[in-house]
Amino acid sequence: MSEQQKVYPVQAEFSAKALINKEQYQAMYDQSVQDPEGFWSEQGKRIDWIKPYSKVKNVSFDNHNVDIKWFENGTLNASANCLDRHLETRGDQVAIIWEGDNPEQDEKITYRDLYTRVCKFSNALKEQGVRKGDVVTIYMPMIPEAAVAILACARIGAVHSVVFGGFSPDAIAGRIVNSDSRIVITADQGRRGGKAVPLKENVDEALTHPDVKTVERVIVVKCTGGDIAWHDHRDVWFHEITEPASDVCAPEEMKAEDPLFILYTSGSTGAPKGLKHTTGGYMVYASMTHQYVFDYQEGDIYWCTADVGWITGHSYIIYGPLANGATTLMFEGVPSYPTHSRFGDVVDKHQVNILYTAPTAVRALMAQGNDVMGNTKRDSLRLLGSVGEPINPEAWEWYHKNIGNGQCPIVDTWWQTETGGILITPLPGATDLKPGSATLPFFGVQPALVDAEGKELEGATEGNLILKDSWPGQARSIWGDHERFVQTYFSTYLGSYFTGDGARRDEDGYYWITGRVDDVINVSGHRMGTAEIESAMVAHKDVAEAAVVGYPHDIKGQGIYIYLTLNEGVEASDDLRKELVKWVRKEIGPIATPDLIQFSSGLPKTRSGKIMRRILRKIAANECDGLGDTSTLADPSVVDSLIDERLNR
Ligand code: 6R9
């Protein structure tokens, strides 16, 4: 039997205790698509509303008028849903377990403590002039103050824009300019794998960018105590403004469709897009998916290893778990520090029941060998999750056996920054698992596969993945550019949302995501536009032209392969290659570090000047037979020299 046909049936014992079993899944799914109004009207009640909604769904996917509204006449506050409503029943329960990069450091924060810390910082933010509707940029390490900052913004109605701590000064600057952000919250330094990350220094540099004109305040958390530059007119210490602040702060009443946050992500063209997520529908969806997909039950210790700088951190470290009154673990470090058994150590130390991580982390551990988890037991685990990219069956099996002791179902969750929450996924008490398949749609989600012309394909088949109707967690727009939102997602297949992913559907209706069908690559679960890397490359003085493609990489899923032509008179050399690698890291950040740079005398172009990426992808994958038709190239001989000089063999 090939790996792809292997089935792990739902365990009867798991199912008996689970929130949703097979019959319930089917009945609820059917209702959710036959009567979305009724279904979501009921599900919306999981959130506390200040003013209840009476309108549930008001959505148009028509590309002349894309308009997405859920629960539109209701009002609520996201932070009150994550904090205030739990005080009476679980004020003394731990909300956040913080585990430091250094294994000696940890902290347990109860719901009451977190509430107090958020209220105080909310008042401090107001003192600093932050008002409802303002955009606050958060560039922070994985420390409790990151959660406090996010929830404080939500509390006062400010819109947070979290920028991943691994991004460069230029990337921060771009996001600040695009969102007109007046306030930045950061830390002196972060810690990862025993090394300091110069966060404040990066912010300082970002703010020297000539286009950054809006920032009035930088709020700095003292994290490592490392040396930093200080600008009196602009910088304030987090603790200095927070300590004296009152611990009473009434949550702002927000409309369901008021923005909660912006989160930037890469697309196939242009600069990163700021996806706009709103309050009501997002909270309903984050909370519901967190509860059902992870079968979250009272008392469970839940750990999502993502960074808060990604959508996974937003929905499944902060908003979903806290809305559900869960105990959520926040990890500052990396899986390989101080040793490769760190995940196992943390699971044992805090008796983690649910672990949600990324295939790239699994493959990196797998590369260390089967005894990488050392003496750790991991017997508290009852469920594992995967997100960020397709998980290959081999890594799935390894994860199941070596992390989960062969005992835990794995939920392979497919979703996107744009979707706000998980869309295609097993429910662990309801879905038979097939390693490598994200399986079936969540409630209310209507996936379909279409061919290049947009014709819907039936049965077992392969095609482009679209979604035929809305779900409450969906992004509503691109910040400041609704037209781009419409163009990107609603203009390829009219009347549907286009995901940018391809997928296969098998005889059982299970979905197998095959990866991006656009010029987006997925490196270690991080999304990157090839156009973004190309434009960084050509900004270098020695580079004439660049083409970037992904190629299969054992650990990262995809690696970054760059083809470059240099300006006249510039010599190709290893030193130049090193300099170019450094350049990309500076322009975008370490996650965009090129794996392979091939200098070439030309790129394969059609007579109309279009680079034929299909050919470059094949060469990068070391699949030089079957390059397909090259007759439309302006100069077909370029291909031979590219093959001769290829790097990935
Ligand atoms: C949540 C997140 C989204 C892209 C998405 C797809 C890939 C995510 C996946 C998966 C296969 C899974 N992706 N989860 N592919 N199986 N379980 O990762 O959001 O950073 O926006 O990336 O990631 O290609 O389109 P984001």
What does this molecule look like?
With 649 residues, the chain is of the alpha/beta class. The protein has two domains: 12-51 and 70-332 and 341-356 and 375-384 and 446-465, 3-Layer(aba) Sandwich (Rossmann fold), CATH 3.40.50; 524-645, GMP Synthetase, Chain A, domain 3 (2-Layer Sandwich). It has 20 helices and 31 strands. The longest helix has 17 residues, at 111-127. The protein is globular, with a radius of gyration of 24 Å. The protein binds ligand 6R9. The site of ligand 6R9 has 25 residues, from helix 12, strand 25 and strand 26.
Overview in brief:
With 649 residues, the protein is α/β, with parallel strands linked by helices.
Q: How are the elements arranged and paired?
A:
Elements: H1 12-17, H2 22-34, H3 36-43, E1 57-60, E2 67-70, E3 75-76, H4 78-82, H5 87-90, E4 94-99, E5 106-110, H6 111-127, E6 135-139, H7 144-156, E7 159-162, H8 169-179, E8 183-187, E9 190-192, E10 195-197, H9 199-207, E11 217-221, E12 235-237, H10 238-242, E13 254-255, E14 259-265, E15 273-278, H11 280-293, E16 301-304, H12 311-323, E17 327-331, H13 342-350, E18 354-357, H14 359-366, E19 383-386, H15 393-403, E20 410-412, E21 447-450, E22 456-457, E23 461-467, E24 477-478, H16 482-490, E25 497-505, E26 511-516, E27 520-523, E28 526-529, H17 530-538, E29 543-553, E30 557-566, H18 574-587, E31 596-599, H19 613-620, H20 637-644
Parallel strand pairs: 4-17, 6-7, 6-8, 7-14, 8-11, 11-12, 16-17, 16-18, 18-19, 19-20, 30-31
Antiparallel strand pairs: 1-2, 3-13, 4-5, 9-10, 14-15, 15-24, 21-22, 21-23, 23-25, 25-26, 27-28, 29-30
Helix pairs in contact: 2-3, 6-7, 8-9, 11-12, 14-15
The structure holds ligand 6R9.
